[in-house]
Write a structure and sequence with these properties.
This protein has a domain at 15-64 and 98-139: Ribosomal Protein L13p, Chain: A (Alpha-Beta Complex), CATH 3.90.1180.10. The longest helix has 14 residues, at 180-193. 29% of the residues lie in helices and 9% in strands. A four-stranded parallel sheet has the order 5-2-1-6, with helices on one face. It has helices at 25-37, 68-71, 89-95, 99-106, 113-119, 180-193, 237-242, 246-254, 268-281, and strands spanning 15-19, 53-57, 73-77, 84-88, 122-124, 138-139. Helix 1 crosses helix 4. The chain is α/β, with parallel strands linked by helices.
Amino acid sequence: MNCYQAKTGELARHWYVIDATDQVVGRLAAQIAPILMGKHRPTYTPHIDTGDFVIVTNVDKVVFTGKKWQQKSYQRYTGHPGGQKEEAAWKLFQRHPDRILQLAVQRMMPKNKLGRHMLGKLKLYAGPHHPHQAQGPVPLDAVNGRPASAGILYAPKPVPKQPRQPAPKPKEETAVAPSATETEAVAPSVVEATTAPAPVETAPSLETPPVAETSAPAPVETAPSVEMTTAEAPPVAEATAAEPTSSDASALVEEPTPADAQPVDAPVGEQVATTESAPGSE
């Protein structure tokens, strides 16, 4: 069975705020230390900082039980020979009100580099105000309150910062005809933005209408027929008399007479006369 092991930066950090007014130093420190180490979560990993941030306000109003203000003392060492100092609790409280609670929490943390890193998430303020409103800290009861297990809360992946690029220099504006691809890319957006197209007035067409659609053709006006009466009709008898009849014409066609033919009974002198007069008669 594999156990869960947290990774650095995998869990999201939470912020809590506690009011230390009239709170016992030891009991308050025993509540803050597990939150800084991450022991209030089921994802606690000893070698990874899985804790949350804690803001403590009004640290100048903490109390001790019994006569610890006079009996309790704090030692410090400067690092030089004869540099060991000892100071009562009430004197240290006058110089640094937040130092009493800080030392109580520090002695409950791991004594190594990881413990010092966890202690950096503790924010102590003497007044009721703190500059961490942007983090949205959750109020926590200082006596009986303890944050419940939040489970595995994954933090978003950090985004690397990109270097700032200098602003490009303004270029001279030149009229450039848009390419075909640019016009195709812009055309759909223009059609969506515009409203319904206005009606376009088109010129009347000059084409002749089809024959099927035309009406029936108009009647052609003809000249009135003139009926000639018998009185007005020209005389036909005289014209017919001069013209040969059909019987005579057929006779002439059937039996043509040669031009040189001469009647047998005619005398010789008359025959020559008739022959010479023919061309003139024509």
